[in-house]
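Homework-ish question, so no full write-ups if that breaks the rules, but can someone show me the predicted structure for this set?
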Amino acid sequence: MFDLTGRKALVTGATGGLGEEIARLLHKQGATVGLHGTRVEKLEALASELGDRATIFPANLSDRADVKALGEKAEADLGGVDILVNNAGITKDGLFVRMSDEDWDNVLEVNLTSMFRLTRELTHPMMRRRFGRIINITSVVAVTGNPGQANYCASKAGMIGFSKSLAQEIATRNVTVNCIAPGFIESAMTGKLNEKQKEAILGAIPMKRMGAGADIAAAALYLASNEAGYVTGQTLHVNGGMAMI
Amino acid sequence: MSDIAERVKKIVIDHLGVDADKVVEGASFIDDLGADSLDTVELVMAFEEEFGVEIPDDAADSILTVGDAIKFIEKAQA
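A: Not a homework solution, just the prediction itself:
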């Protein structure tokens, strides 16, 4: 089950906590992984730790020419991308009444527009090969909303609508498109929360714990696998029960 | 038969996996050759790649048969 031997995967944002966990697990299951990120040293360290079957693809996702080049280079260097994990994302939080155009544009550009452009580069070859797995990492707040994150929530909800549309268009080509919506995951970001904030968050989670990167990586592995071939257009919520949608 | 017609037919045969004798100039991609809407988009992209021509969306919409494609490309390359 879940053997990815011979598959080629591109993971964006592979130097972030979640992206790294996903890349590690896909690699462990036999895939050749392309690691995208902006921090070259971190990418190199991860690639050398993984050893064989790991290539780095530094690119700035807020630069449209860079996104196009990333798609072309990954497709060429990996010899065809079978699995695309759109994981990279940024936040620029702030209350809506004070949100600047710039904070809105940056978040939409990196989280939504770059995903559209990269996916467009890689979808056609997948269709031609009659196999593909597109996995978009969204968030529970795409569905529930979150004060202070109007831009982020809009971008993440946009990913879900995008995925459902694309899933319908290319299902006959054996290319699936799904989302994973993590809840609260232990990360550098949640590590900065104080005890009171943590308590409030845990109070809303039936499992009374935050998720781990491994919980998300396992979901990504499933959606990337041959076994998930009949699953498309779905959003898999991995959130300890904090939102049952 | 022109070289362009030959190459167009080869692309259609390869892409749609149909018998060569069905790919005549009057054959409709959708009605006669079993293409779906995605196939027609992919065929147009394949023609663009093979012949180095640009086929705008409104022109693509009017390419319904094998003969339409051959005529369009012959005109574009003339």
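Now go work out the reasoning yourself. Hint: The mean pLDDT of chain A is 96.
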